[in-house]
Each structure stands twice: as C-alpha cells, then as structure tokens.
Amino acid sequence: MAYLELDNVDFGFGPVSHRYEVFERASLAVEQNEFVAVIGFSGSGKSTLVSLLAGLLKPDRGQVHINGKVVAAPGPDKGVVFQNYSLLPWLSVYGNIELAVKQVFPSMKRGERRDYIQHYIDMVSLRGSEWKLPGELSGGMRQRLSLARTLSMKPEVLLLDEPLSALDALTRSQLQDEIIRIWEEDRRTVLMITNDVDEAVIMADRIVPLTMGPAAHLGREFPVTLPRPRDRATLNFNPEFKELRNEVTRYMMNLNEEAKSLTRSVTLPLPDLQPVLPGPRVRVG
C-alpha cells in the first residue's frame, strides 16, 4: 500500500436529483517522501482533491488513506498550503507561526518554542520580518510565511494547493527553488496542485493529470526522471525536458478537446415558457 492513497473515490455536490459529480472512481497512490504534481485545468476539481486528501471533505464512496489509516478528519499530520495564504492579518509573522506551534506542541517550553519558530522563519528567509503583519509583506513573503507555518507543524504529508499561481514570474521561480530546497533538506511526502506544466516538470518526481469534470479521475502518469538538482537555466536546452513537457502538454490539450466534443454533443431541452403580460391598471381611490 502506498503512503498516501486515494482509493476509488466518488464525490459530488448537490441533491441527488441535480447532483454534480466531481470525481468518479478516482484513484491515486503517492509513495513516502515522493513529490507528486497533479496538473489540471480550472474547474477540474483540483482544490476538491486537496480537501479530500486533507480530511476537510469526506468521499461519498471509497476511502483516503495515509500510512494505512483511513483519513476521517483534518489534523496536523496533513499540512495544507493554500493559494490565498490563509494568514491571520492581526498576527505578526512570528505570531502566525506561534499559533500553529502552540496547537500542535502545547507542552513545548517558551524558550524552546522561540528557537523552534525562529528556525522556520530562517528556513524561508524571513529573518528581520518577525514582527511585521501580513499586510506589510509582499505576496511572495506571505506565501513563504504560509509555508513556514505549515512546515512548523511537522506534517507527514504536505499538500500544496496552487501555492504559487498568484505570484509574478520571478517570485514564482524563486519560491519553486525554495520549496524544492526545503523538501530536499526535510523530506516529506508532497502533493502539489498546479496548472503549469513547466512548474510540474521542474519540481516533481511524477506528474499526474486530472481529467476534465464532471466525473473526473486521475489520468495517465508521467514519471520525471530528470536528475536533481534541476537547473532551470539549462533545462530549456535539455531534450528530455522538452520531450516530457511537450508530451504532458499534448495529453492535456487532448483532454480539453475531448471535453469540448462531449459538451457539443449534449443537447438540453428548454422548457416551453411564455412571458406573463401585465394586466390593465386599476386606479384605487
């Protein structure tokens, strides 16, 4: 059994008569300490997948397992880094991390806790910004803070829900390198959601596309065998990188074309409705 596993999961929203099936028989297996990128188009259910793996949502059918145990609820063993940072605006950099540390390690003494928090602040290069509020930080700094807060809980599984999609290209590439560096130093099982093929190839051990919804599932897998560390300055000249990027892109575009053809083939009958015309006005009084 894989360390992180989605086992034949069905999930949908809404009442039975008008239900939207997000996933149907979706399965995924991630080995311990593996870095997997799930790539998909907007609306394919990527964030729903993270919520299912984190225990924030429960499958209608099937199960989610971590280390052989059924995921029944969220917990500190499953760390989520959200796209929108999810920081408390009234707490400083130090305070946002401290809140998480106190919840997970309530018996940690004050001096030990201070050094522990500083370690994670330094890890994401935020030394000197300990007492700044999130509103005083750039987007990249906020995302680094969100990552530090999640890592400070020492989760067994790190779930990254498109954490870099709102950043400019330069900050995005810097944070890609930062995440890879942290993962290589402190190995954790990582599942990252992205819609960027280059990002997936640069960062992951394996790429798993998510098919278009409704009733999406995990599609063909693409192993990334490029040696680490991966130098983005030379990757564009690497034939293996170019071939893999083109192969994944072609696969995703074919999924998109298939979804469009299915949409065109569906004819929805419209109800025979007639407008209600206003009656004659009646003067009162």
TrEMBL record:
Q: Please provide the record's keywords in A-Z order.
A: ATP-binding, Nucleotide-binding, Transport
Q: What terms describe the molecular function in GO for this protein?
A: ATP binding; ATP hydrolysis activity
Read off the SUPFAM superfamilies from this record: P-loop containing nucleoside triphosphate hydrolases
- InterPro entries membership: AAA+_ATPase (IPR003593), ABC_transporter-like_ATP-bd (IPR003439), ABC_transporter-like_CS (IPR017871), ABC_transporter_ATP-bind (IPR050166), P-loop_NTPase (IPR027417)
Q: Which Pfam families match?
A: ABC_tran
ABC transporter domain span: 4-237
Task: Give the top-rank taxon of the lineage listed in the UniProt record for this protein.
Answer: Bacteria
Q: Which residues form a coiled coil?
A: none
Protein name per its UniProtKB record:
ABC transporter ATP-binding protein
Identify the species of origin: Aeoliella straminimaris
